[in-house]
Amino acid sequence: MTNNNVRSKLRNRFTAATVSASMLLVLLGAGAASAAPAPGTAAVPQRTAVPGTAGQGTVVQRTAAAPLTNLSHLNFLLDTVPLSPVEGHSTYQLDRMPSAQAPWTYADKKADGSYSRIGGGDLDPATGHWSQGAYNADDIARTAVVYLRHWQQTGDPASRERAFQTLRSLTYLQTTSGPNAGNVVLWQQADGTLTPSAKPVELPDPSDSAESYWLARTVWALGEGYAAFAGADPAFASFLQQRLQLALGSLNKQSLAKYGTYDTADGVKVPAWLISGGADASAEAVLGLAAYVKAAPGDGVATQALTRLSEGVAAMSSGSGTEWPFGAILPWNKSRTLWHAWGGLAPAAAATASTVLNKPGLLDAAVKDSAQFTPQLLAAGGPDNAWSPTPGEAQIAYGVDSRVQGLVATAKAANAPGLLELAAVAAGWFFGANSSGAPAYNPAAGTAIDGIEPDGRVNPNSGAESTIHALLTMLALDANPKLKAKALGITRTVSTHGLSVVEAESGAIAGNGTVVKPASAWTGEANISGGAYVALKPGASLSLPLPAADEPRNIYPIVNQGIAPSGNTSWRAGKGPLGSTRNGGAGAQGITDAPGILFPFTLKRALGAAAAAVVGTTDGDVALDALLVQPQLSTVSVSGPRAESTLYVSAAPERIERRVNLPAGFHWSQQAFDASGRPVTAGPQQNAAAQSGRISVAPGGFTWVSLVRNQ
After folding, report:
1. pTM metric for this prediction
2. What does the DSSP 8-state code read for residue 536?
3. Coil, helix or strand for 97?
4. Which residues on neighbouring strands pair with residue 500, listed in sequence order?
5. What gap in Å lies between CA 135 and CA 47, rounded to an integer?
6. Which pLDDT belongs to residue 46?
7. Tens digits of residue pLDDT in 82-102
8. Distance CA 289, CA 295 (A)
9. N or C: which terminus of the chain carries fewer CB neighbours within 10 A?
10. Would you report the helix, strand and coil content of the chain in percent, each value rounded to 5?
11. pLDDT of 4 above 70
């Protein structure tokens, strides 16, 4: 599960520049959250173990015809939960069925290859209670979605029953009376006892005292549950409908009551009606509401909620192909410089809602995120858990699945087949195209690792969240045979060449300036890259060396406008000016947690390929954190059993051509797509380029080139 108040945990993560990527996994709660056992779990008695399974490093060959979705490990995580009627909490037919099913939160891998089911926090051996709980609403809701989709996709009666039982478990956690009616308790013990206030304290506290991520995910599961059961079990569907309406009643008193109003974040208007202030949380509710409204189009309250939340999600679209964050939908209305991969279902939600509501305007945000930002993300090394604003941190199944779901949904809604090429590259992460070089999902066992750190180290545990999102990707692949075949053909990342960082402290200071290492790298809304920045006084300059390049580069100086009051910094390479950035003037702070903004600003001119340094000279006080360097032609090279392929990504204003060397025994093909992921019609110039062994990349678009071994 993703721990509650996860943005606070992100802030905690950024309090020191030396925080490890494994600690990131702890803070994000990515399944069993670290390569080492979570605090308090090392000496926990093993409750249950699954028989030994193949290690994640074992490559299990799968044909495109064989199903990838294996529910064995998720089934193992499920346990029977005894339920008793308590004030404010009940579920469907509780008098007849006094138990339900829920997944354990974590699963730690043992030396023999089996797994131990683990709860959250510390175990009290006297009571058998965890300081958080054994089960949580976040994972129960998403587990229900997995079983619902599997049942609908395959007709499996066992998945129907497990969907039924996990939905009963989830609705028991929903508060049905009193001032918190409609909200959801997050944690539950193995004996069925609710834990409204967990330790450590999580917000909101108690967990059903306000709207939350788990309320949004409850809406997701209830919406998809109603759509699935409406024809199969009308009585149960009616119960789910009532609980969905109860949840919407709560949201309409909280965030949705602010619809049409805007807050200010560093001088920019942001929607005030997002659930918990997030496009991430709101997007997951949108997925459920879209399924529900499609099945019950006459429900005006739900249609209104879907419309409003979708509009809020789309309003968080930011940047362009040459402006950070390059078209991404930002997740948090309190920061203009934090994007994260986990919970990144916003493009999937916007694309899906655009179709259900017949609102093409929503699709624009999904297309920008999918066709412009995602290629840059892949070229920078893949779905890192955070760009804040520099790329970095570990990668987890939740973030990868979010990319795949968004690409598949947007490709369908926008008729943009190029996005499926990107989806194949993203999904290849599960089959070995990642920094570890080993599969992250084992189709023979249904397990998924809990994370891969930037240096390739693997967290071998397989908690609920990782398992859930790996399976959601496998369901998407099983439903799309052509995409599945492409993804299975990508088992290794050969190289990436994309966005990179040059730290300011690596440069040479001329004049009055110094390197500053603040006590905390976290500013309140972003992370100071490398934990240090350079402070310059008027007249001083900073020269930053850059590695050699084959192509022009777009340069983005990261300036902390919360420190310096005024003035400008002029940037040049040799005698050629590149542009200037303002030292201050971030705009009104508004709802953000810190004054000013740490932001990568776009320069007017690109840096030539031959340039070896960039120099910034200031006429006032300035705080310079780093340079983001974006090749105007980025690449992701991957390989598999039969082919070697390269994704060429443009951040240039004009078409780019590049010669491709064809090895003996290979033939090649190229598919060019524009900045929306739609095919580019080859003209005479492109045809001539292809015939002469050159690839062509459209402005802001991407081209997929495959070198295939001759048979």
Report:
1. 0.92
2. E
3. coil
4. 629
5. 14
6. 26
7. 999 999 999 999 999 999 999
8. 10
9. C
10. 35, 25, 40
11. no
